[in-house]
Backbone:
């Protein structure tokens, strides 16, 4: 898969932090992946969840470092692209403000 806005991930968390290490591993896993559906993705990331947002579109949310953070993405399986949209703390995610922008 190709990651769109990969630089966003590099800036999302300090490289030496727990979240930074998780994001680095996630980037490597995504680049090597050939996911065709959410079922394929869940073989690698069982806790990834599809979430419908205000626009009616479905985005995919990854739990990062347990429940400390959320990585919000839009995945186009047919084009093998994953767009990084937001990286939030669990508390920021729970406010649901991010759904209004999507």
Residues:
């Amino acid at each position: 898969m190709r990651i769109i806005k990969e630089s966003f991930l590099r800036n999302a968390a300090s490289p030496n932090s727990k979240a930074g290490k998780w994001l680095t591993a996630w980037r490597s896993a995504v680049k090597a992946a050939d996911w065709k559906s959410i079922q394929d993705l869940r073989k690698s990331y069982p806790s990834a969840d599809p979430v419908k947002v205000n626009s009616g579109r479905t985005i995919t949310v990854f739990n990062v470092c347990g429940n400390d953070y959320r990585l919000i993405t839009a995945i186009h399986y047919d084009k093998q692209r994953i767009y990084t949209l937001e990286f939030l703390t669990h508390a920021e995610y729970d406010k649901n403000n991010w759904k209004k922008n999507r």
Remarks:
- The chain has one domain: 2-100.
- The domain at 2-100 is CATH 3.30.2310.20 (YaeB-like fold).
- The first helix runs from residue 6 to 12.
